[in-house]
Amino acid sequence: MKQHLITIKEFQEKFPDDATCLLHLFNQEFPHPKCDKCGKVGQFSQNTNRACFSCSCGQSHIYPKAGTIFEKSSTSLHDWFYAIFLMSVSRNGVACRELQRHIGVTLKTAYRMQKQIRSMMQELPPYMSGEVEADETMVGGKRKGRRGRGAAGKTVVFGKLERGTKRVSTAIVPNVKAATLLPHFTDSVAKGTKLITDELKSYRKIARIEGMEHDTVNHGSGQYVKGSTHTNTIENFWGQLKRSLDGTHHVISPKWLHLYVSEFAFRYNHRLVPVPMFDLLLSRVSYMTTRVERQIGAYRWPV
To answer: Torsion angle, CA of 109/112/117/121, rounded to 10 degrees?
Structure first.
């Protein structure tokens, strides 16, 4: 099913001002609000002086922005919603400078907003089975010296893709040794899965340890397709990622590269979901992570 893409006209009609955005947030987070003072349900109305909803008894107040990415932000809620809209409808990402021009905030504010929105795009690795392609790519500017996996000054991005569902999972790794890549297969790839890779020896060892069938293509000798054996699907994802990073963002710190990679993985994984990405992101603004999920930099969001 093709996903409905929300137009800017539809966005402006649905969210014309801050009050409408706050009402949407309130209805989403508190569908059946109950006053803890008088016990009445659904008797809250929007306060005209503060960003909150007050009970008819006047003794209880609900602040919808509390516990969300909007908390303690002085930026207009409408600007926040518009930033989420821009990042949800773009296929190549939105540059920080472009967001700054769109909503008229400082560069520092635009950067913080994008960082918060990207945090909602992080997800735990999906459980994969069937046929899974695995590959890695190098991200970074041009460097003199050795090419390929041993290139200095580059960041290694590992990824695996399940052919049946077209879901991708990515991670930043320090190197491509089997011991480094193995944890990204344990508990996230089913036993008996057919692993399809290039000729890197690490994958042969991983397939043996995890009990997976393994088939390869030898890119070093110019072999890219062998029947149904190829890594072209995940290579296409790498191509989209690199074109967007280079064409939209130009320069990215290795420290925050995982957020950008997760952003493009999120778009890829949800491109066929009938729920618009904008609505999906709005539903995630207040979900809190567990301590373990914070440590691995991933979030357990509803899909």
So the answer is: 160
Whether residue 14 is predicted with pLDDT greater than 90 in this model: the reply is: yes
C-alpha of 14 from chain center: 24
Partnered with residue 46 across adjacent β-strands are 53
Give the pLDDT confidence of 136-181 residue by residue, as tens digits: 998 886 666 555 565 667 899 999 999 999 999 999 999 999 999 9
| Amino acid symbol at 248 | T
Residue 145 near residue 116, CB atoms below 8 Å? no
Measured between alpha carbons, how far is 142 from 62 in angstroms, rounded to an integer?
52
- Report how far apart, in Å, the C-alpha atoms of 19 and of each of 76, 120, 158 are: 10, 23, 43
Residues near 49 by beta carbon (within 8 Å), at least 6 away in sequence: none
pTM: 0.86
Bridge partners for 133 per DSSP: 161, 196
- Report the pLDDT value the prediction gives residue 134, as an integer from 0 to 100: 95
Which residues are CB-contacts of 27 (< 8 A; sequence separation ≥ 6)? none
Alpha carbons 107 and 112: distance in angstroms, whole number: 9
Element counts in the chain: helices (H) and strands (E): 11, 8
Place of tokens 């992570």: 289
CA end-to-end span of the chain, whole Å? 16
In Å, how far from its chain's centre is CA 244?
15
Domains of the chain, each with CATH number or no CATH: 8-119 (no CATH), 131-253 (3.30.420.10)
273, 19 contact by CB (below 8 A): no
What pLDDT is recorded for position 5? 78
User: Is 50 exceeded by the pLDDT of residue 299?
Assistant: no
CB atoms within 10 A of CB 52: 17
Mean pLDDT of 111-125: 92
